[in-house]
User: Which sequence fits this backbone?
């Protein structure tokens, strides 16, 4: 995949089943597929569109030929081998890369000169996350409204540059899996946090930094705008200060940033000398190149600007030479420049004056010198503009020879920006550094939901997580609706995800055993657009989890089984728990309204019950949002309904039904008996009121004397309807 604005170009080798998940992270605008392949079907195209909004374009199969692929890529990169990019020989990803280059060559009218390297993306270096999980955890966008605001990304983004923001977005989509890669980032963040003044200064400089990656692409492609170049010059000019601030930092990542930002002094001077500080954004208007950059340009400009002073100097010179005191040099749109001498002085006119025009009481002349000046003055502005274009282009070509270094600086700035942003975030929110281990544990003390904790008006109640590979692998969380079950399990997934991007996390302390993959099945989001019923979708996603989770995965299940009848759903939920705890043996959190599942604690090795504490107070229920050991005994659904403003009668009716229905579940009442009891209680509540009184009342007031036969029939029909 290629990012045209910056020229970044990557490959990833993967099997087809993972393709959609990876595409959801990459979020391409267009996807190419070999014609006639399984990726070139209407069904796939619909899926693709739904998952990431991308359009699928069919491409000829021969474009993917192995031999042709190597040729295409070598020709593009002007190399004889791709070893320099880490490719020992051919692999299938290179076919896709070549097909992409061919496609761009065909469709992009500009050159691809800014695509300078190909980077290998290894899936094994990254935590796997499927599209559903990213969506459910609201990492980049919210579930409702699909907005950035309210997402994890928006909530933690403290970057100062566009480059940094895009990098952070990628970090969240591709958390790491390797221990040392994570610790390297943590070290850098910690080091930056230690000196707050330095951090602030770094971020101050970064906020003035332009999008070096995009500007360098624009330079390469010949479409850089004057103000972009000026901004680049200012950015490069600030780099020495930035490098100075990085002095003394020892972490591996930060040490790598420094050399990439050094040695741009000449480029900075070149740009700032060349481009005027008040340059317009288009070159053809002129005024882009600074004064004193080019002598010829200065001269041409002075002709235009100093025109008046040259003319008056010339006039004075002529007056003196001819002795004609009232000689005038002027300009007329039709006749151009002229020297005017009144008829009284006609005898003093020198021989080299050429007559041009006669006016009242005077003659107008021209000289060779004035003619020369005229032709210069009339074209000077145009020539100056043309020269500016030429100078600008020369500057652009000069800069494009150092484009690789500029791209390197862009990456270094992006990295520094993200690290500094995460350091800033950790300071602002008191995030702590989690301990990363290879063991299958997950221990979080006083963890907070990164987004909700900031949004809530009341205090957020922190919660602990304690899981290991042997004990408490499967946590079953029961409790009333609205108690905080979903929040707790999502929060756990989010903290693991954040920890594996290298970030600090909102918790007092934490030990995170590396996770190879996070799976989430949350809620019953209706995805009718994908043509699947809610329950079908729920099962498709659950199947994905059960088939693909490993002992190193983290699985978050929220109310799975809710989409079908109680018994069905309970049976499925039960079997899923068994499978996770005994077969997969992964770390899993299962939030459920099925109290029956709490029985699993006794039956399953590694399963353990949690519930959300509730305090009952008179007729009120107060949710404490505190996760405590043990299973919940009641669901308090009726209380929640009342809190939500369901009408009093419905609440009372539900309350009266509760004992009957509980008896139905517990004692196995048959359906007719259930219906009889329900009707009986309804009658007691006066739900089905007796119409007799009303009918008698109507009859009493009936004036038979004045009722026609037809009207009587109508009254009779109405009375009958009331029964
Ligand atoms: P459940 O899944 O148990 O129905 P949710 O997790 O959806 O409940 O939480 C319901 C609401 O309770 C949240 O929207 C939030 O306002 C509040 N809440 C949840 N957890 C906490 C917490 N730890 N501290 C404070 N408020 C919380
Ligand atoms: Mg919930």
Assistant:
């Amino acid at each position: 995949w290629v990012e045209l604005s910056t020229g970044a170009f990557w490959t990833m080798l993967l099997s087809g089943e993972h393709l959609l998940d990876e595409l959801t992270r990459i979020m391409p605008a267009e996807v190419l597929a070999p014609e006639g392949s399984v990726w070139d079907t209407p069904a796939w195209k619909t899926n693709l569109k739904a998952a990431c909004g991308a359009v699928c374009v069919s491409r000829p199969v021969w474009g993917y030929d192995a031999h042709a692929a190597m040729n295409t890529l070598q020709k593009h990169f002007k190399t004889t081998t791709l070893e320099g990019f880490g490719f020992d020989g051919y692999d299938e990803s290179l076919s896709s890369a070549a097909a992409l280059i061919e496609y761009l060559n065909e469709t992009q009218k500009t050159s691809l000169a800014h695509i300078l390297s190909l980077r290998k993306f290894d899936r094994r270096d990254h935590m796997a996350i499927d599209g559903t999980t990213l969506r459910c955890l609201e990492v980049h966008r919210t579930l409702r409204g699909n907005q950035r605001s309210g997402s994890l990304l928006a909530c933690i983004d403290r970057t100062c540059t566009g480059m940094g923001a895009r990098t952070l977005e990628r970090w969240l989509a591709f958390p790491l899996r390797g221990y040392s890669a994570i610790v390297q980032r943590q070290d850098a963040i910690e080091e930056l946090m230690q000196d707050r003044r330095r951090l602030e200064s770094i971020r101050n400089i970064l906020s003035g930094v332009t999008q070096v990656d995009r500007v360098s692409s624009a330079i390469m492609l010949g479409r850089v705008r004057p103000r972009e170049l000026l901004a680049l010059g200012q950015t490069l000019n600030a780099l020495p200060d930035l490098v100075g601030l990085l002095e003394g930092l020892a972490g591996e990542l930060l040490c790598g940033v420094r050399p990439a930002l050094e040695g741009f002094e000449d480029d900075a001077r070149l740009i700032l000398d060349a481009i005027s500080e008040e340059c317009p954004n288009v070159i053809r208007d002129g005024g882009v190149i600074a004064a004193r950059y080019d002598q010829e340009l200065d001269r041409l400009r002075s002709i235009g600007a100093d025109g008046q002073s040259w003319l008056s100097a010339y006039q004075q010179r002529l007056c003196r030479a001819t002795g004609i005191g009232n000689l005038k040099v002027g300009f007329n749109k039709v006749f151009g420049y002229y020297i005017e001498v009144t008829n009284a002085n006609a005898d003093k006119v020198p021989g080299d004056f050429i007559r041009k025009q006669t006016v009242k009481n005077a003659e107008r002349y021209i000289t060779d010198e004035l003619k020369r000046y005229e032709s210069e003055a009339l074209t000077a502005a145009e020539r100056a503009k043309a020269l500016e274009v030429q100078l600008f282009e020369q500057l652009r070509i000069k800069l494009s020879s150092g484009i690789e270094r500029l791209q390197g600086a862009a990456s270094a700035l992006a990295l520094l920006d993200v690290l500094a942003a995460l350091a800033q975030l950790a300071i602002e929110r008191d995030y702590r550094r989690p301990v990363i281990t290879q063991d299958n544990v997950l221990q979080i003390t006083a963890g907070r939901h990164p987004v909700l904790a900031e949004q809530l008006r009341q205090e957020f109640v922190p919660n602990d997580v304690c899981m290991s590979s042997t004990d408490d692998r499967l946590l079953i969380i029961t409790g009333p609706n609205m108690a905080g079950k979903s929040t707790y399990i999502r929060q756990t997934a989010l903290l693991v995800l954040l920890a594996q991007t290298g970030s600090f996390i909102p918790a007092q302390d934490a030990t995170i055993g590396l996770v190879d993959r996070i799976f989430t099945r949350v809620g019953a989001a209706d995805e009718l657009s994908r043509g699947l019923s809610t329950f079908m979708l729920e099962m498709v996603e659950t199947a994905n989890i059960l088939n693909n989770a490993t002992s190193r995965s983290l699985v978050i299940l929220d109310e799975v089984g809710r989409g079908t009848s109680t018994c069905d759903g309970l049976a499925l939920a039960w079997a899923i728990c068994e499978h996770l705890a005994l077969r997969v043996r992964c770390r899993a959190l299962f939030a459920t309204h099925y109290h029956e599942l709490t029985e699993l604690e006794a039956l399953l090795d590694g399963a353990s019950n949690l519930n959300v504490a509730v305090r009952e107070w008179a007729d009120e229920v107060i949710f404490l949002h505190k996760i405590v050991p043990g299973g919940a005994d009641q669901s308090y659904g009726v209380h929640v309904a009342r809190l939500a403003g369901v009408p009093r009668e419905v609440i009372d009716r539900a309350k009266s039904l509760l004992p009957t229905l509980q008896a139905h579940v517990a004692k196995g009442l048959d359906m007719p008996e259930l219906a009889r009891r329900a009707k009986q209680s309804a009658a007691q509540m006066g739900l089905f009121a007796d119409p007799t009184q009303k009918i008698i009342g109507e009859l009493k007031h009936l004036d038979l004397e004045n009722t026609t036969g037809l009207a009587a029939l109508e009254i009779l029909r109405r009375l009958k309807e009331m029964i």
